[in-house]
Amino acid sequence: MILSTELKHLESYHFAVDEIGAKERAASIASRSIKGKSKIAAIKMAVSMIDLTTLEGKDSDGKVKALCRKAIRPLDGTDEIPHVAAVCVYPNLIAPAKDALSGSGVKVASVAASFPSGQSPLKLKVEEVKKVVALGADEVDMVISRGAFLEGNHDYLFREVRAVKETCGEAHLKVILETGELETFDNVRKASIIAMLAGADFIKTSTGKVQPAATLPVTLVMLEAIRDYYNETGRIVGMKPAGGIRTTKDAISYLCLVNETLGAAWLTPQFFRLGASTLLNDLLMQYMKQKTGVYQSAEYFTND
Questions:
Q1: pTM exceeding 0.85
Q2: Active site includes 240?
Q3: Backbone angles phi, psi at 173, to 5 degrees
Q4: Domain 36-291 has what CATH class?
Q5: Active site residue: 51, 240, 250, 282, which one?
Q6: DSSP 89
């Protein structure tokens, strides 16, 4: 059971969310347009916040090493574009990622704790996290047990996240809520706060394996939970929308949402990430358009 003193922290928060209001505000931000030098700056910022991700059954050492090369230098022949924040892989591919990224400043993230279903006993999840950390992961992306949460077993969610966080040691923990399965915005807010109370360094929308994945309205709900948690505790927790973020316009909308909800302090890779596999190339294409005035073919940019 959670200690009663920790349960009482939940009483400080309200969990009813104005769903219509959240959707209207998100739509308003999505309609904005940024151009010129501001757009170039936003593109560079977005690149620096990407967790470049490959989570496919056909992943291999070679594919991961190629992805790492792109993570370090996204645009061939120039250092104008910053490196991404992290490369996210399955546990068995941590070693080649660590080797390829050594000394680059790019972190290695790994999914763990029975990703993407979360359907394993807590003991097995903790054992997997131990192995991931031992293999050298800088960051661990776990997914919560949605079934337990939806049954009202909030104690289990707290204990699960707390146990994984304690196992992570120095590695940062990103807690994936899989918001597409949480059914209501109220549930998203409650799960966000419980995860933060249990020690999450980041809260994250999705695995990318369930639809809907990241959306602006659900991200807004999570950002407001982070804001309220910060006001209550003084501890900064990061945010990572992931899944379905494919275009530069999408990425800039998320940056605007973070800035207006949490402020500039969160606009850093330390506290905000974009989980993506295809977003980077669109950002690079838009960057070259801003620099040269013409679009380059997608063939000019590597897929890995």
A1: yes
A2: yes
A3: -110, 125
A4: alpha beta
A5: 240
A6: E
The per-residue pLDDT for 89 is 98
Q: Annotate 44-53 with b (16+ C-beta within 10 A) or e (fewer).
A: bbbbbbbbbb
Measured between alpha carbons, how far is 91 from 95 in angstroms, rounded to an integer?
Answer: 8
Nearest one of 303, 292, 299, 297 to 80, comparing CA atoms: 292
Catalytic one among 70, 107, 125, 141? 141
The active-site residue out of 190, 204, 250, 282 is: 204
Is 141 annotated in the active site?
Answer: yes
Examine the pLDDT at 32 and tell me if it is beyond 90: no
Q: Where are the domains of the chain?
A: 36-291
Helices (H), 31-121: 36-48, 61-72, 94-101
| Tens digit of each residue's pLDDT (9 = 90 or more) over 72-112 | 999 988 889 999 999 999 999 999 999 999 999 999 999 99
Is 289 a catalytic site residue?
no
E-strand spans in the chain? 50-53, 86-89, 107-112, 139-143, 172-176, 202-204, 238-240, 274-276
The answer to whether 137 and 94 have CB atoms below 8 angstroms apart is yes
Task: Convert the pLDDT of each residue in 205-235 to its tens digit.
Answer: 999 999 999 999 999 999 999 999 999 999 9
Q: Is the alpha carbon torsion for 291, 296, 298, 304 positive or negative? A: negative
